[in-house]
């Protein structure tokens, strides 16, 4: 498997920390020092998850020098689809990727890593040659905009990669995926329903979703403990050491988490990719968005070894060690 191209996109409107201080009692100083975030993008009512995701996908397809018609599979990692039945088919239609089968995959902020590994299985078994993997989320739709502990953290965006069969050299060098539902309550976007009677003895639950709830300290502790461990396991599978990694590419949740993980792995900050300041935590989009930005800046070069790790709700976490390029 090879990663032949990347792309990213955001909604049009950006809110900086000063803007947020008009919505909740907070300050630029608090947000910057506790999280590293300076601004984030938020989708307007006219924008859609599928629209932003399709824009990122088009850019990835162009970089891969292929066409939508060549795509066999579209995998959309998201927790915030436009349609609970899934939004991948809508993206397939927007791209005119008529040959592709398309489906959603939900693993919160780990979605891109889980998607990368899922896509690689289809490619390694020879079933599909060209896979479009998108990580996209519009968490602004589900954020409690009166809760300053969470609303300052999240942003909207999309990132995509085109993965291709490459029998001579498999660029996915190692991976490790984990889940632990016993700590599910640390970070939720749960269903809430009211009982609605249908017949004398039959009731159903009818409702919507609660906004995002999070125990920040628990999530922080979980990430700092589990992410270095999962990266080390993936590196072991790749028969590599942390010194051999060119770039550490973590889910962009919080600069303090990213710094602590890099420190535990003994990876210096100039090898740790960070664009969180501009985008906030964009959930499944954060890794491909940061990857695409760094690739387009020509900071990441073909053949560079990247240790990527996603972590978040579920709880889920995982790492993938891969080389950029064909
Ligand atoms: N502005 C100003 N003050 C605030 C804000 C804010 N936005 N948010 C909280 N505070 C206040 C609190 O009310 C509290 O005040 P008090 O002491 O008077 O009660 C004080 O700041 C400290 O609050 P804590 O919640 O203890 O702050 P903490 O130091 O733990 O930092 C943070 C909070 C940044 C959320 C931290 O816990 C963290 O980074 N956790 C990880 C969260 C994360 O990254 N989640 C996403 C990962 S998973 C995923 O991506 C979906």
What does this structure look like?
This protein is globular. The model has no long low-confidence stretch (mean pLDDT 97). The longest helix is centred in the C-terminal third of the chain and has 22 residues, at 216-237. The chain is an alpha+beta fold. It has helices at residues 17-20, 28-35, 49-63, 88-95, 111-124, 148-151, 216-237, 255-265, 276-279, 286-296, and strands at residues 2-9, 13-16, 39-42, 73-77, 101-105, 130-138, 156-164, 172-179, 187-188, 191-199, 202-209, 213-214, 247-250, 305-312, 316-323. The chain is built from ten helices and 15 strands. The chain has a five-stranded mixed beta sheet, with helices on both faces. The protein starts with a strand and ends with a strand. 51% of the residues are buried.
């Amino acid at each position: 498997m090879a990663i032949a191209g990347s792309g990213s996109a955001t909604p049009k409107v950006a809110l900086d920390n000063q803007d947020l201080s008009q919505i909740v009692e907070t300050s630029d100083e608090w947000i910057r020092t506790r999280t590293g975030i300076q601004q984030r993008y938020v989708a307007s009512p006219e924008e859609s998850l599928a629209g932003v995701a399709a824009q990122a996908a088009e850019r990835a397809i162009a970089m891969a020098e292929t066409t939508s018609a060549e795509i066999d599979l579209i995998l959309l990692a998201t927790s915030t689809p436009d349609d609970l039945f899934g939004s991948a088919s809508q993206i397939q239609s927007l791209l005119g990727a008529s040959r592709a089968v398309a489906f959603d995959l939900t693993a919160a902020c780990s979605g891109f890593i889980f998607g990368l590994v899922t896509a690689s299985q289809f490619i390694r078994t020879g079933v599909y040659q060209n896979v479009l993997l998108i990580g996209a989320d519009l968490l602004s739709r589900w954020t409690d905009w009166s809760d300053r502990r969470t609303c300052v953290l999240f942003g909207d965006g999309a990132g995509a990669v085109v993965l291709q069969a490459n029998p001579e050299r498999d660029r996915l060098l190692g991976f490790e995926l984990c889940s632990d539902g016993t700590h599910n309550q640390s970070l939720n976007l749960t269903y809430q329903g009211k009982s609605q009677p249908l017949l004398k003895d039959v009731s159903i639950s009818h409702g919507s979703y609660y906004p995002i709830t999070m125990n920040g300290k628990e999530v922080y502790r979980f990430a700092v403990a589990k992410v270095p461990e999962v990266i080390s396991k993936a590196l072991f599978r790749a028969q590599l050491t942390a010194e051999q990694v060119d770039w550490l590419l973590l889910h962009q949740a919080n600069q303090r988490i990213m710094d602590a993980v890099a420190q535990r792995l003994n990876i210096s900050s100039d090898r740790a990719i960070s664009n969180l300041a501009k985008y906030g935590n964009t959930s499944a989009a954060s890794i491909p968005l940061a990857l695409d930005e760094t690739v387009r800046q020509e900071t990441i070069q073909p053949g560079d070894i990247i240790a990527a790790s996603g972590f978040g709700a579920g709880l889920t976490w995982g790492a993938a060690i891969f080389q950029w390029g064909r």
